[in-house]
Specification:
6-stranded mixed beta sheet, hydrolase, alpha/beta, 3 domains, 11 helices, Mre11_N, single chain
Length: 385
């Protein structure tokens, strides 16, 4: 069976101030053409279809168009909700859509109920694990509220169901989360709970292929556990990413081969750094003149009208960062730099130590972490509602 694995469409999202709807529509065209031209037997979409719980109308219309075109091809599609989606909204009409071959999996309780598809070699069971917010699903899975625990419990249901299937039944799991070994970018929303966001790849043991979503870079965690990445860039941290989908061939015996199918990107991304006058004349930067650009200026004193002057050479400059050259001991060094790479929890603990002269004890650290988890859970509830 030939699968096309994609995820993280983020329909409705902009790239800085650039409306990406036309680029997202071009991706849908490319997706449909790939399904038709490459003999795809099933499409899997591993979450974050939309960029927010209540997407703009134009994004909903594009999603509707995508569903109709995929259904018209007669190729089944299996799709899960991600942490950016409203599971309830995305799942509306799932029963009716299934009759057209579009299978939406947005309910945590249905993790162990597969979509059964078949090829000439027999059945393939597709298990859709929507994004599992630990605080909201721990009771459903009778486990503690952390990502590894709830995902492991969901996978236990998958393996229990698979054990009831005839020998030789192949299996595919769709999941949305942060698996250990994956490389994040700046454009994924933080899903940390209890200080831990990542789960080990071994949680997917026992299935033939795990089609992951959430991280925006295409990645191979293991031969059978892969991220497709987002089809378009959504932050400058993705400047070096090759945007693609996975074309996966699942053999009769569960053997697997995977190839990347490149996605159309409107413009390349580039990051440049240096003093403004140098950037404006450096011949090595000519290759970036038509790219979407992030420029970091290192001038000791902020130059006049830097964006306008940069745009004269680089008309698609979207982001301007100031990082002035200073001696390492300079007390005016950037506050943001001092916080770089630190978690919310660490920043809060440092603040407590700064205010009262001593950091929080173990109980106080737990109170802080519980407060951060409660805020994240509350944000998720508001998006789902």
């Amino acid at each position: 069976m030939r699968l096309l694995h994609t995820s993280d469409w983020h329909l409705g999202r902009a790239f800085h101030r650039v409306n990406m709807l036309d680029a997202q529509a071009a991706f849908i065209d490319h997706l449909v053409a790939t399904v038709r031209e490459r003999g795809v037997d099933a499409v899997v979409v591993s979450g974050d279809v939309y960029d927010r719980a209540v997407p703009p109308l134009a994004a909903v219309e594009l999603f509707d168009d995508a569903l109709h075109r995929l259904a018209d091809l007669g190729v089944p599609t299996v799709m899960i909700s991600g942490n950016h989606d409203s599971a309830r909204r995305l799942g509306v009409g799932a029963g009716l859509l299934a009759r057209a071959g579009v299978h939406l999996r947005t309910e945590p309780a249905a993790c162990g109920t597969p979509v059964m598809l078949a090829d000439t070699h027999g059945d393939v069971a597709f298990y859709g694990l929507p994004y599992l917010e630990p605080a909201l699903v721990k009771d459903e899975f009778s486990t503690k509220a952390d990502h590894e625990a709830v995902l492991a419990a969901a996978m236990n249901r998958v393996r229990a169901d698979l054990a009831t299937r005839p020998p030789g039944t192949r299996s595919v799991v769709l999941a949305h989360g942060f698996v250990t070994g994956g490389e994040p970018s700046d454009s994924e929303r933080d899903i940390t709970v209890g200080g831990v966001a990542a789960v080990p790849a071994g949680v997917f043991a026992g299935v033939d292929y795990a089609a992951l979503g959430h991280l925006h870079g295409s990645q191979t965690i293991t031969e059978r556990v892969r991220y497709s990445g987002s089809p378009l860039p959504y932050s400058f941290s993705e400047a070096g990413y090759r945007k693609s989908m996975w074309l996966v061939d699942l053999g009769a015996d569960g053997s697997l081969t995977a190839d990347r199918v490149d996605c159309p990107v409107p413009r390349p991304l580039a990051r440049i750094r240096g003093r403004l006058e140098d950037l404006l004349v450096d011949p090595e930067l000519e290759r970036h003149e038509e790219a979407w650009l992030e420029a970091t200026l290192t001038d000791p004193v902020r130059p006049a009208e830097p964006m306008a002057r940069l745009a004269g050479r680089f008309p698609h400059t979207l982001s301007l960062v100031f990082d002035p050259e200073r001696a390492p001991e300079d007390p005016a060094a950037s506050y943001a730099r001092r916080l770089a790479g630190r978690s919310d929890q660490q920043i809060a603990e440092d603040f407590v130590a700064h205010v009262r002269g001593v950091g929080p004890d173990a109980h106080e650290r737990t109170v802080l972490q519980d407060a951060f988890d409660a805020v994240r859970a509350d944000d998720t509830v508001r998006e789902i509602a």
